[in-house]
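Moderator note: this is an archived Q&A kept for reference. The question asked for a predicted structure of one protein chain; the sequence and the answer are reproduced below.
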Amino acid sequence: MATAENFELQTTKHDVSSILFSADRDYLARNNGDQVKGDSVSGKTIGLYFSASWCGPCRGFTPKLVEVYNELLQLNKFEIVFVSWDEDKESFDAYFSKMPWFAVPFSDSETRDQLNTLFTVSGIPTLVLLDESGKVLTTEGREVIEEYEAEGFPFTSEHIAKLKEQNEEAKKNQSLKSLLVSQSRDYVITADGKTVPVAELEGKTVGLYFLLTTFNACLAFNPKLIEVYKSLKEQGEKFEIVVVPLDDDEPSFKEEFERLPLFSLPVKDKSCKKLIRYFELNSLPTVVIIGPDGKTLHSNAADAIEEHGINAYPFTPEKFAELEEIEKAKREAQTLESILVSEDSDFVIGKDGIKIPVSDLVGKSVLLYFSAHWCPPYRAFLPLLIKVYQEIKEQGKALEVVFISSDRDQASFDEFFSTMPWLALPFGDKRKQSLSRLFKVRRIPMVIAIGPTGKTVSTDARDLIMCHGAEAFPFTDERVKEIEASLEKLADSWPKKVNLELHEHELALTKRRFFNCDGCGEEGRVWSYYCEDCDFDLHPECALGDDSKGTEGVVKGKEAVDEDKPAGEGWTCDGYKCYKD
């Protein structure tokens, strides 16, 4: 929802020269040291790119922005200006060297600060798009680029609306040809280089397999997918799989594709990007199922294929309803040993590799902690999890944690596990794959809570711990309801609305999962005095002072919600953006 502040930004025209240049500087910089005069951006659509080398999400987005920029370069109607949030010139220079566009010189911190203030940039990466007259098209240019890429140019609201309309129309009239055929290609390819007309696949059930050969989860999934494919073909089923390659390196893809008896789109074919956007790809592996009529049957059957094999065919809603009943029965029969014991692997490990039988954990509450040393958000969450674990253990409650690693090598696992006071699956243990599949682990860190009976009580225990700490134990729905009731009661005596000198508008008492307090600068949770128009938050204790009794440790908790500190103190990263506290 657009705030009043954002609306005002997007209806304001800016004199590009006055905001990009200063009295002492009439040029922008290139990464080779050249100085570029203002007429290089005059009359063009401009992207102001707020970014920094230390920011993980920025490093992830920059290559995509470079690709779009280069694709639009021949039009000579679009320019990007880098506005750095780096802390030293060496870092700025190294990061800027990868960018083909202009930058506000690092030495001109005053202009950079003014741009941050002018466009109310609170987190990075942020891409502000201005039209040729200096009017703000959007402050969410990153989202536009990620969804529409170069096709989104000139990024006007009218053009974006048109693209959305075209997309909706395409979904209504979807067919296998509309998905797979382009102006320059009406075929798919085989591993030996032969071409097969898309028309030959019509009338069959087709799986669109989005494959990234450098992604371990895809490589682990390939054997099962091939097993299912071959079995269905042997049974005479009309089923085909078309790979949608996500690789940039054609030789690497070909090496893996030679092992797959499937069809594929060519590497870097424009239809690959179109399909990524069309199906809103957000996880791997993904197998989109297209029915014989060309309509989408299922947005991702990968889990069903992995878990049920050929029994998931023909991937219809009726079949998935049947599979859900099977899954429900499994959940009701679940025990700790049924999920943690596999063949001869009936143990977890403690320090120095000591084997602990899974049977020793039966009757306890168990947290399955999926994480990895390379994952930035663990840096803030792990200390909190250790603190909560120790507090619960000190209370005499039966709790254990089992670390399930996504580390890339034994040394990284050993180093990371050495910081933890609990148990783990051995590095490379096959049970990690089955547990990840069972609990649909798509991101880490993730915490699954298993109750004393062995049944799953929460797949969102990480958020419960971040929000409520040790009070969340035993992580059941009943306990969450108790906490929520106590929080409702806590706020009974507080005014529902307040007017303060600190903010020009009335603030309303509002439930907010997490927020940054605009008063003290710390993060908060649950209750905020909030102005929706300005996205302004205050902790109750900052708004009410001595009248906010009982808020300590309940609504104010910076320690519980910091995700990452990539540039030292004062930064928070949620994996998508980095914010300054």
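Archived answer notes: Residues 210 and 244 are 5 Å apart (CA to CA).
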